[in-house]
Design brief:
The protein has 207 residues and is α+β, with helices and mostly antiparallel strands. The protein contains seven helices and seven strands, in the order ααααααβββββββα. A hairpin with an 8-residue loop joins strand 2 and strand 3. The N terminus is likely disordered.
Length: 207
């Protein structure tokens, strides 16, 4: 579940995404044998995806993380709002909308997609009448963004996704207020996002 953003993240980092052998084994010890298989598959995806075209990277990462089962924060973590790292989502085989978006974003950054082309986007899912989060990709600053989502698992243009109403978006450096499905206005730094800061801290600690 999504809460109001308040304070926090500086620059984007890939820490906690490309793991050392010891970190991979530690994940297996923490989460179990099946989790270790998922984490190893993720690491192979990263190493194997570096030379691919960007659109292929989007499809690859979107499809991979959408295999994780959906679980609400209350079911999964016993909290109203918890933002998991990719390792936590894969380790526990559970995620909700922001966890999918964060995992896709961080993995694509590791695969060499520029930060300025990616935004984690807070939307209203009109069909469900509830808050939701997706990852959006901009090939150029003025291009119609592509949407990577766990509800509709196809990578589609924002104008096609009439079921989503964008509210605002962010990446490692910026924050934007949406002005329709394909345009937005800068609202300053993403250093205002407290849950995002929590994710960064967990990544640094290996979680």
């Amino acid at each position: 579940m999504l809460s109001t953003f308040s304070s926090g993240l500086g620059s984007t980092e890939s820490a906690g995404v490309l793991l050392s052998p010891d970190e991979i084994q530690g994940a297996g010890a923490r989460y179990g044998e099946e989790a270790l298989k998922r984490v190893n598959t993720w690491q192979r995806l990263i190493r194997g995806g570096l030379g691919k075209e960007e659109r292929e990277k989007l499809e690859l990462v979107n499809n991979f993380f959408n295999q994780i089962r959906y679980r609400s924060d209350q079911q999964h973590w016993g909290q109203v709002d918890y933002w998991a790292t990719p390792l936590e989502a894969l380790g526990t085989n559970g995620a909700d909308c922001e966890d999918y978006a964060i995992a896709k974003y961080l993995t694509l950054i590791q695969l060499g997609v520029p930060d300025e082309r990616l935004r984690i986007t807070y939307v209203k899912a009109l069909t469900l009448n509830q808050a939701h989060m997706v990852l959006t990709y901009y090939e150029t600053p003025d291009a119609e963004p592509l949407v990577l989502d766990n509800l509709n698992k196809q990578v589609l243009g924002a104008e096609t996704r009439k079921d989503l109403l964008p509210i605002y978006s962010f990446n490692g450096s910026g924050l934007w207020v949406s002005k329709g499905r394909a345009s937005s206005q800068s609202a300053g730094s993403s250093a205002r996002l407290s849950r995002w800061q929590d994710v960064k801290s967990k990544l640094k600690s290996g979680r």
